[in-house]
Every structure is written in C-alpha cells, then in structure tokens.
Design goal:
By secondary structure, this protein is of the alpha+beta class. About 55% of the residues lie in helices and about 20% in strands. It folds into two domains: about 180 residues, no CATH class; about 130 residues, no CATH class. A six-stranded mixed barrel has the order 2-3-10-5-7-6. Strands 8-9 form a two-stranded antiparallel ribbon.
C-alpha cells in the first residue's frame, strides 16, 4: 500500500510538472463524459415527461380511432396504417351504444378537434376547438373553475355555447369575468358558459388554450358527421383488457377491423418507452465515441511523455526501479488523467443537465453517471497500457544515453 501511495505521488508530481498538457489531455474525456450524461438525461427526461403526460389521461382510458392504426397488437406494435380521419365511420350513435354497454365501461365521449381563431372585441387568439359532450370532463378528469360545463340540453338543442380554458380566458378577457360574454369562433358567436380549471400543457400542447363546444353544434357549424375519436372511461384499470375486448367485439359487429382501432394507453406508452429507451442508449453510445477519442488522446500524450522522459526512466532503472514499478507509474498517470477528466465531466454534465432542465425535461440517471465514469476509467487503463509497457521495456543504458 505504501509503495502504491509513493507511485501515485510520483505520477501526480509528473502530471503537475506539465499542467497545461495534462488539462488538454483530460479534455477529450471531460467532453465525452459530459456528453454521455447530458444526452442520456435528455432522453430519460423525455421518457419521464411522456409517462407523466399519459398518466394524466388516466390508466383506465381507451381510445377508439378510425382506420387500422394499431394493427393486431392494439398498441403501436404491428402498425399497418395511420388514423383515417376523413374516412372515419365513427358516429354519435356508437358513443350512445357504448354508454349503454355498462360495466366495466363507465362512459364514453366523442371528440372532433381542429385549430380555430377566437376573438372578443379587439383581442384574439388561436385555439384548439374541441366538439364533445358533457361526459368529456369525466373521461379527461378536468373540473370547471367558473360557470358550468356542457350539459345534455346544450347537446340536444345544439346551442352555441363554449367552455374555455384559463389561458384563453386571460388572453381574450384579461381580468374581466368571461361568463355570459359572446366570443367569435370561426366567424360564429358563442356564449361563454364556463372556464375550465388550469391544466397546463400536454405533449407540448397548451390545453388551457382550448374551447369545448357541444359536438352537435360542431357538426352543424363545421359541417361534419363522423368523429375523429371516441374516448372511453373504464371503471378500473384492472378491467382495461375486458373493456377493450367488449369494445372491439361491439365495433366488429358494426364495421370491419380495418375501419377502427381500439388503443390501450398502456401499450402505446410501453411502445413509446421502448423507442425512447433505444434512443437514449443510442445517444449515450454516440456520445461515448468521444470517450474513445479521449482515450486515444491520453495514449498519444503518454507516448510523447515516455519519449520526453526517457533519461528519467533510465536513471530510475539504474538506481533499482523494476519494469513493473515503471509500468505502474505510467499506468497510474493515465488513470489519474482519465479519473480526473471523468469527475470533471460528471460535475459539468450534471450542472448542464440541471440548467437545461429549466427549459426542457431532463433527468439525470445513476446508471448513466456510473457508466460514463466507469468507461472513462476503463479508457484510461486500456489506452495507458501501451505507453506504460513501452516505458517499462526501455533499456536503462540506452535510456541514459538518450538525448
């Protein structure tokens, strides 16, 4: 142990003698470790963000989409096509039938969605216009902060009423009370009957800048008949598979399997997580290439160092230093460089990730830190072996004569 501590002191002294060169040698490892931690934290952060966003929809939610979107797997696996909104065969009659099926299906809500412009006096805003029913709030779990939500009479009479999000209310009305006011959406007047509770963004979309109108009104105003999707609320997440089977059986009696897809959010999320997991590993792997470059830099500098210190090596051997001791010293120097670069890289990568986390989702994972630092140490050992062996094999007499 004492001999090893002396070797470490000798190696540290040699590195301090050429501080600038030592710092430049570590730079490749620093950049590599920083890149691995930063890129994997972005991938993991995105994965966590999507998990949270899907969780807000509820684990006990099914989505019926037009077209063969999910393939045989019911999720994104085996995808054979995209949602066919224009050729949709989903109707309000299907929604009413689903509501009557009973447990484990609690309720269902139709959805027709498009982008529109709303104005009130001189204020205007681009919003997401959603045509739905009074059951939508039960499926999506959002509450009304002011006024009231959509009701059955609104649907039956196709009233021009709207429940708006808090961001939209602030944009159009400022601090004024919006309830009872008339706003213009796509050149038609709508009475504001309620303001939804603040929800935030979902998958990058500001949900609070949305207006909800009766689906029957949307059909008359926009001139469509069929739906973009149907959202189904299941009583318990444990019954999601049973509800999915019941829903699929119902639609197979009404249309062909190519006309609809019943998507289970768990399967969608699992597929997305798999994709993001591979992406995170790929990003980490790409960043790890710079660690190899850093290792080559360490080897090159150490080989130069061996050449420069040939007389020193010859003198040490002349006074009794063994080849093993010489090899150990140069190997320790390489490890110190890689460990030092790895530690700085961990600190720098963590700091950048935390800073970046204020703007986009990031999550520093223990495995990425351990992997990045472990690889940096391994790189130092592997690429330090060649220079260390070269130093240990120098002939002491030839080394002392070296100029």
């Amino acid at each position: 142990m004492e001999r090893l501590s002396e070797t470490v002191k000798l190696a540290s002294t040699a590195l301090r003698a050429n501080k600038l060169r030592s710092i430049l040698t570590m730079l490749g490892v620093i950049i590599g470790v920083t890149s691995v931690i930063l890129l994997t934290s972005i991938g993991s952060g995105l994965q966590n963000y999507l998990n949270e966003q899907f969780e807000t929809l509820g684990a006990n939610t099914l989505i019926v989409m037009p077209g063969n979107f999910g393939g045989e797997g019911g999720g994104l696996e085996g995808m054979t096509g995209a949602p066919n909104f224009q050729g949709s065969k989903l109707t309000l009659a299907h929604v009413r039938d689903l509501e009557k099926l009973g447990a484990p299906i609690e309720t269902a809500a139709p959805v027709f969605e498009l982008s529109a412009k709303a104005t009130y006096q001189k204020a205007s805003s681009i919003l997401t216009l959603i045509g739905t029913t009074d059951q939508y709030s039960k499926v999506r779990k959002f509450n009304i902060e002011q006024g009231r939500g959509l009701s059955r009479p609104d649907l039956d009479s196709a009233r021009r009423v709207a429940v708006i999000g808090p961001s939209l209310a602030e944009k159009l009305f400022g601090t004024s009370n919006p309830i009872g006011q008339q706003i213009t959406i796509s050149q038609r007047k709508f009475e504001v009957i309620g303001v939804a509770e603040k929800y935030g963004s979902m998958l990058g979309i500001d949900v609070d800048k949305t207006a909800y109108i009766p689906i029957t009104t949307a059909q008359k105003v926009i001139g469509f008949e069929n739906l973009m999707q149907i959202m189904i609320k299941v009583d318990k997440k444990e019954n999601i598979d049973q509800a999915k089977k019941i829903t699929e059986d119902y639609f197979l009696r009404k249309m062909t399997k190519d006309d609809f897809s019943v998507l289970d959010q768990r399967q969608i999320l699992n597929t997305i997580n798999q994709i993001l997991g591979v992406l995170t590993l790929a990003l980490g792997g790409i960043a790890a290439i710079s660690l190899i470059v850093g290792g080559i830099g360490i080897m090159n500098i150490m080989l130069v160092s061996v050449t420069e210190r040939t007389r020193e090596i010859g003198l040490r051997k002349a006074v009794g230093a063994t080849p093993k001791a010489i090899l150990t010293q140069f190997l320790v120097e390489a490890v110190i460089l890689s460990c030092g670069g790895g530690l700085i890289g961990v600190i720098l990568g963590g700091s950048l990730s935390l800073t970046l986390g204020k703007f986009i989702p990031t999550a520093i994972t223990f495995w990425s830190v351990l992997l990045a630092f472990g690889v940096s140490v391994l790189v130092g050992i592997i690429f330090g072996v060649a220079p260390a062996l070269r130093a240990s094999r120098l002939n002491p007499i030839a080394a002392l004569r070296y100029e």
